C-alpha cells in the first residue's frame, strides 16, 4: 500500500512540474508569434529630409509610429546599419522600423518605396 502511495505522490509531483513547463512553452511560442507580427505591423511611412551618413543619422518626416505610440512629425533618427543610408537620398519615400534602445530612437530597417 505504501508503494502505491509513493507512486501516486511521485506522479502528482511530476504532473505539477510538467504542467507549468508546458504552459510556459506555449506562452513563449505565442509571444514569439506576437513579436513577429508586431515587427511587420510596425513599418512606418516616411520621407527622407536629410542624411548624415558619416554619423549614421537620418532626418525623416514620418507618419504615426504605432509601436511607440508616437504621432507623425519630422525628427532625426540614428540608423543601426549605416550601409542602409547609401541607397537613399532626400525626397525618397520610405518605410522604416524604429525601436527604442538605450534611450535613443534607432532605425533597424529602412526601405525605399521606389
Automatic annotation (TrEMBL):
<keyword id="KW-0732">Signal</keyword>
<protein>
    <submittedName>
        <fullName>Cu and Ag efflux protein CusF</fullName>
    </submittedName>
</protein>
<dbReference type="InterPro" id="IPR021647">
    <property type="entry name" value="CusF_Ec"/>
</dbReference>
<feature type="signal peptide">
    <location>
        <begin position="1"/>
        <end position="25"/>
    </location>
</feature>
<dbReference type="InterPro" id="IPR042230">
    <property type="entry name" value="CusF_sf"/>
</dbReference>
<dbReference type="Pfam" id="PF11604">
    <property type="entry name" value="CusF_Ec"/>
</dbReference>
